[in-house]
């Protein structure tokens, strides 16, 4: 081995110096190239570029998983900012219809924060899949779209809600939905089989009878569904997470119901379509907003209803976006809770594909 001549060392040194001076500026342009690469593949590239370029969480995403996480964090941040803007506009909405529309928005934004937060940090050990995240993100998106709709429907002054909408949170949530879609489709395929065995095992352990019976004629525990939901609410404080089955006998129930987000796993079983009917007569034209005019709105998780006709306006925030039959199917009683294996034993007629 012969040693290198000294001038070659010097040359090498300068070469390295030159190289590093070339590298450092190209590092930051590389970063914006990355942002461009990721954002150009989303349905709303403009707000993606804008917010990702200013993101407070170090640097550009390195892979799809990071991009997804980052988009979720930004969506949650912006929702919180939009929410505080909404809060500040509250005092200006003292009178109807602005006040009603504003109150709806307040609930809808609070629920959006909840949905995004749990998509970002799912409860540990719950075994949540990309399919669940997709459901929660859909819920968040519907909420965000329902809020300005309430202002439009009641002809409330849109000036009040304009600044809140301009945060473009729904664009960012749409992007998250798009990024997560392929993973959700995979999880959906795997989900059915695991739910069936898991659901059957668990639900067979449930008591065969309903927890409470609602009957218009007084032959049950309660005459109104509202009372049954109140009972469920009380029960749930001691037994969190378990299912609460409400059997609603044939009859017409003129009620406005809300399954709030603290009420989870409510199962409502009617006596059949056209027999158990939940109705209401509020309408947007009468001065109620989209949300408050709903005969039935569901914020709670794991809600299942079967054998019930809900007449007029039924709105399940977050769940009504899911319209495609292939997506709906997992939520029907037969599949979602493996109803076929246990509801017949309660003697309650049901339609597994409702
Ligand atoms: C938010 O949406 C509005 C209207 O679509 C658009 O003009 C604006 O540029 C968007 N903001 C960002 C940051 O993309
Ligand atoms: C998000 O969830 C975590 C854990 O449940 C909670 O500590 C945090 O306060 C939540 N953040 C918001 C903005 O709701």
Automatic annotation (TrEMBL):
Keywords: Aspartyl esterase, Hydrolase, Signal. Residues 1-28 form the signal peptide. Pfam families: Pectinesterase, PMEI. Residues 30-179 form the Pectinesterase inhibitor domain. The keyword DNA repair does not apply. One of its GO terms (biological process) is cell wall modification. Gene3D superfamilies: Invertase/pectin methylesterase inhibitor family protein, Single-stranded right-handed beta-helix, Pectin lyase-like. Pathway: Glycan metabolism; pectin degradation; 2-dehydro-3-deoxy-D-gluconate from pectin: step 1/5. GO terms for molecular function: enzyme inhibitor activity; pectinesterase activity. It comes from the Eukaryota. The keyword Cell cycle does not apply. In the C-terminal section; belongs to the pectinesterase family. This is Pectinesterase inhibitor domain-containing protein. It comes from Ensete ventricosum (Abyssinian banana).
């Amino acid at each position: 081995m012969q040693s290198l001549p000294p001038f070659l060392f010097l040359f090498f040194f300068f070469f390295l110096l030159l190289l590093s001076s070339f590298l450092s500026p190209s590092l930051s342009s590389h970063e914006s190239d990355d942002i461009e690469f990721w954002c150009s593949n989303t349905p709303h590239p403009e707000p993606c570029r804008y917010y990702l370029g200013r993101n407070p969480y170090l640097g550009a995403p390195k892979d799809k998983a990071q991009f997804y996480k980052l988009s979720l964090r930004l969506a949650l941040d912006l929702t919180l900012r939009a929410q505080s803007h909404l809060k500040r506009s509250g005092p200006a909405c003292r009178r109807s219809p602005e006040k009603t529309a504003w109150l709806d928005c307040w609930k809808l934004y609070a629920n959006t924060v909840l949905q995004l937060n749990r998509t970002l940090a799912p409860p540990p050990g719950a075994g949540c899949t990309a399919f669940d995240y997709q459901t929660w993100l859909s819920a968040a998106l519907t909420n965000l779209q329902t809020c300005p709709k309430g202002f439009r429907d009641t002809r409330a002054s849109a000036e009040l809600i304009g600044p809140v909408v301009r945060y473009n949170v729904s664009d960012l949530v749409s992007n998250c939905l798009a990024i997560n879609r392929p993973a959700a489709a995979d999880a959906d395929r795997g989900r059915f089989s695991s739910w069936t065995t898991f659901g059957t095992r668990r639900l067979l352990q449930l008591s065969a009878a309903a927890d409470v019976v609602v009957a218009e004629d007084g032959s049950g525990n309660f005459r109104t569904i509202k009372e049954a939901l109140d009972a469920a609410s009380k029960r749930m404080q001691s037994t969190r997470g378990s299912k609460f089955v409400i059997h609603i006998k044939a009859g017409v129930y003129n009620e406005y119901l809300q399954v709030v987000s603290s009420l989870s796993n409510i199962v409502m079983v009617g006596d059949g379509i056209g027999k158990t009917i939940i109705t209401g007569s509020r309408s947007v034209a009468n001065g109620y907003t989209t949300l408050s005019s709903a005969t039935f709105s569901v914020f709670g998780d794991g809600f299942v209803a079967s054998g019930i006709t809900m007449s007029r306006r039924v709105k399940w925030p977050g769940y009504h976006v899911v319209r495609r039959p292939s997506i709906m199917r997992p939520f029907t009683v037969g599949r979602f809770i493996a109803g076929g294996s246990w509801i017949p034993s309660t003697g309650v007629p049901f339609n597994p594909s409702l």
